[in-house]
Amino acid sequence: MDNIRIIPRLDIKGPNVVKGIFNEGLRIVGSPQELATRYYKAGADEIIYMDIVASLYQRNLDFELLKSVANHIFIPLTVGGGIRSIGDINNALRAGADKVAINTYAVKNPNFIKEAAQKFGSQCIVLSVEAKQKSVDLWEAYIDGGREKTGIDAVAWIKRAIKLGVGEVMVSSIDKDGLRGGFATELCQAVTAFASVPVIVHGGAGKLESVAEVLKLANPDAVAIASAFHYQDYSIKKLKNFLRSKEFPIRQ
């Protein structure tokens, strides 16, 4: 296992960072600039910045807002939401993103992944998957900020997207989102069992032990955390120290 990355995730709606449960009941938790800078200074390995309503409203990212966030942090920044063209990716990168996460448009136009990877390199293209459990070993991929069903097997979709050229996968559990009760470990295991690219798991980070559990059982490359950091259940430093005490390889 390579060094595990701890990544705060910022869900953006308008000018604010928001958080809810099951992608609903959104509450403002701060400004993107303030939170990104705080987490950068606190030792985050990367930042994930997701406009969670851009695809739903069929609009572009606010690139000026993104630029105002990127200008104050000096760690990798993954940006997603409303990405629908090569031009959108280029604009996000010019505004300060290091990687671009794509969900809705990739589901509707899978060959866009191949086109984007060929243009910018696989390392720049992240597949974002919002998954909801339908049976014991079946998860459905959702789009438009986790609001719309697709009827697509999320795990099968990830396999296809990797073949098309994505360089990283972020898998989020809608069922666990915002509950702070632990990750969807079976979903995470189902993805990491075959993935030939780095996998970020998201949705459900609760107590320190819940993070250790998903690392032990699913062996992801990174963990993305929102609520537990936003509501200061613990700091990035405390989490990293705890995981090191459990002998996980954690970045400094």
UniProtKB/TrEMBL annotation:
<dbReference type="InterPro" id="IPR050064">
    <property type="entry name" value="IGPS_HisA/HisF"/>
</dbReference>
<comment type="similarity">
    <text>Belongs to the HisA/HisF family.</text>
</comment>
<comment type="pathway">
    <text>Amino-acid biosynthesis; L-histidine biosynthesis; L-histidine from 5-phospho-alpha-D-ribose 1-diphosphate: step 5/9.</text>
</comment>
<dbReference type="GO" id="GO:0000107">
    <property type="term" value="F:imidazoleglycerol-phosphate synthase activity"/>
</dbReference>
<comment type="subunit">
    <text>Heterodimer of HisH and HisF.</text>
</comment>
<dbReference type="GO" id="GO:0000105">
    <property type="term" value="P:L-histidine biosynthetic process"/>
</dbReference>
<dbReference type="InterPro" id="IPR004651">
    <property type="entry name" value="HisF"/>
</dbReference>
<dbReference type="InterPro" id="IPR011060">
    <property type="entry name" value="RibuloseP-bd_barrel"/>
</dbReference>
<comment type="function">
    <text>IGPS catalyzes the conversion of PRFAR and glutamine to IGP, AICAR and glutamate. The HisF subunit catalyzes the cyclization activity that produces IGP and AICAR from PRFAR using the ammonia provided by the HisH subunit.</text>
</comment>
<keyword id="KW-0028">Amino-acid biosynthesis</keyword>
<dbReference type="GO" id="GO:0016829">
    <property type="term" value="F:lyase activity"/>
</dbReference>
<dbReference type="InterPro" id="IPR006062">
    <property type="entry name" value="His_biosynth"/>
</dbReference>
<dbReference type="InterPro" id="IPR013785">
    <property type="entry name" value="Aldolase_TIM"/>
</dbReference>
<dbReference type="Pfam" id="PF00977">
    <property type="entry name" value="His_biosynth"/>
</dbReference>
<keyword id="KW-0456">Lyase</keyword>
<protein>
    <recommendedName>
        <fullName>imidazole glycerol-phosphate synthase</fullName>
        <ecNumber>4.3.2.10</ecNumber>
    </recommendedName>
</protein>
<keyword id="KW-0368">Histidine biosynthesis</keyword>
